[in-house]
Write a structure and sequence with these properties.
102 residues; mainly alpha; 3 helices; single chain
């Protein structure tokens, strides 16, 4: 009886043994988790940078619009600039019999 107890203590039970395949797969799963955490951190950093860039672009756009309005760059109260006819538009006018005067 003592021999059976010693053998049982020395050798783990079949259900307690970790198969070799499981030992090999544990390490890569940890690496995958670490890589995912690094990727998430990089994405978070990139989003923060993008947010800062967007805020700066918005400020620059607001400033440009304000300078345009204050500097007379607004089109309000100005005459519309004459549009040049394209070759197709000119041809259409001539075909209709409307000869544009220059």
């Amino acid at each position: 009886m003592v021999d059976e107890k010693e053998q049982a203590e020395e050798k783990p039970k079949e259900s307690e043994k970790i198969p070799e395949e499981a030992k090999e797969t544990e390490q890569p799963s940890i690496d995958i988790v670490e890589e995912a955490k690094k990727a998430a951190a990089e994405i978070k950093e990139a989003l923060e940078q993008r947010t800062k860039i967007l805020e700066r672009e918005e400020k620059l756009l607001e400033r440009k619009e304000a300078l345009n309005a204050l500097g007379g760059g607004s089109k309000a109260g100005q005459r519309e600039e004459p549009k040049e006819q394209t070759a197709k538009e000119y041809a259409d006018e001539v075909m209709k019999g409307n000869i544009p005067k220059k």
